[in-house]
Amino acid sequence: MGPRPLARTRSFTRRGGRMLKDSHQAAWDRYADALVLDVPRPHGADGSTGVDPAHRIDPEEVFGRTAPLVVEIGSGSGDALVNAATEQPGWDFLALEVWRPGIGHAMAKMDKGEPLTNVRFVEADAALALQTILPPGCAHEVWTFFPDPWPKTRHHKRRLVSAEFASTVADLVRPGSLWRLATDWADYADAMRTVLDRHTAWELESTERAPLRPMTRFERRGIEAGRHITDLAYRRG
Fold first, then answer.
1. Among 68, 99, 174, 207, which is most buried by a count of CB atoms within 10 Å?
2. pLDDT tens readout for residues 25-37
3. C-alpha distance from residue 115 to each of 24, 93, 106 (Å)
4. Which CATH number fits domain 75-236: 3.90.226.10, 3.40.50.150, 3.90.650.10, 3.40.50.300?
């Protein structure tokens, strides 16, 4: 028998699998074979969002070069990803996203300019997959922008940023690397700081906006609703 799937509390909300626009579907059809990594799924409850814990990705093999690697956890519709990959062609970007329409939307944004060869996607639950899928110390930066806030108190246990996940990310990056986070929920920002300030692997580096994170429609809606945007950057000790 192979390894048992790792169990955990889901930190995301499953949304519909249909593409939001025909252009997103067209972009998916055009790019998915090249840009979405084919990963084996476990035999267990995690189904289509899990990755077989025995599977490994070699970033240098995937991208065909040695370059700084940014891992984005929950790339959404790809605003930060596409902007950064365009601005930093010498970096490689691996995005883990469970929402296929978001990946299609990101591909549609990529379709408007020169093809980006420094982006790959994994359609998977990042919190689970990152425990096993990448070699330790491979990432230059990790980004977690606007994770699901799970605002109800009884759902706080589902929040992605936890002591356990902070250890997972600490293993993923090399010493001196940054974990950049952003949220528009004040109590989640406080919870993030509490978790990371207490964690021995992380030290607060900055509360300035991440340099490559663009203003998005999602962010504007949060501001219009009266929510304050918090950016955090923690450095791996």
1. 99
2. 999 999 999 999 9
3. 15, 14, 12
4. 3.40.50.150
Active site residue 184: no
Interval 77-92: pLDDT, tens: 999 999 999 999 999 9
Q: Is 205 exposed, middle or buried (0-12, 13-18, 19+ CB in 10 A)?
A: middle
- DSSP β-bridge partners for residue 179: 142, 234
Of 111, 148, 171, 231, the active-site residue reads 148
Q: Phi/psi class of residue 64: alpha, beta or left (left: φ > 0; alpha: ψ in -120 to 50)?
A: left
Residue owning tokens 């267990």: 44
DSSP state of 229: P
